[in-house]
Amino acid sequence: MTKKNRSSKNDWIDLTVPMGEDTPSWPGDQGFRRIEVADMDDGDDHNLTRVETSLHFGTHMDAPLHFIADGASIDRLPVELFFGRAQLIDLSEAEGDIGREELEGKVEEGTRRLLIKTGNSDIVRDNVFHETYAGVKPEGVRLLVEKGVELLGYDYFSFGPFGELGLQAHRVFLGGPFPKAALEGVDLSGLEEGEYELNCFPLLVSGAEGAPARALVRGPLA
Q: Which of 9, 37, 156, 159 is at a distance of 20 to 30 A from 215, taking alpha carbons?
């Protein structure tokens, strides 16, 4: 994807990676299938489609229940978490996984919604899965919890590194003292650091540990 400045103070910018059969799934997870049940080109009186997919495919949201046994499900998270001011920080120049040192001095105290842009924004729309994506290490996630972050947006399909460290990172963040959500698989390419107006509503799937989401921002704000 060609890098460009997508920032506009007036227009909504769509951060969502489209759900399609050429979008990679997490290794071993259910991919996306779009199945035509009825087709007017074949003589049916209507068009009808069904889909098969993991709830954690493409741009999606993790609820605490994803990694915390008694955590809140996606339909029990407070709806006001999904919209409002969000801080975007740019760590595109960081090499490898992100730790506490890279985040110190970047995240403002009391930031409720945080978007982290990394070099992953260059690969999040690729049609192959990259196990070498940059993630946030558990000690970095602890800093975010200390700062008060409740919604974490990240530019790959997991904010934690690939493997065991990723599991630990999710447990640290989602297991905090108040309901949290991770917005994963957003495309932050072309956006500059600053404050944005964020809307990122997940599908309301009863009792589920996550759901696909549509994510948009407007800004940067003054």
A: 37
- Sign, CA torsion 166/167/172/174: positive
Which of the residues 56, 66, 130, 170 is marked catalytic?
A: 66
This prediction has a pTM of 0.94
Domain residues for the domain of 100 are 8-19+55-219
* Residue 66 annotated in active site: yes
Torsion angles phi and psi, residue 20, rounded to 5: -150, 165
Is the residue at 50 inside a domain?
no
Alpha-helical (H) ranges within 72-179 are 100-103, 138-147, 164-174
| pLDDT, tens only, 13-28 | 999 999 999 999 999 9
In this structure, are residues 118 and 134 in contact, taking their beta carbons and an 8 Å threshold?
Answer: yes
CATH number of the domain where residue 105 is located? 3.50.30.50
Instruction: Round to whole Å and give the CA distance between 119 and 181.
Output: 22
Residue 164 in domain: yes
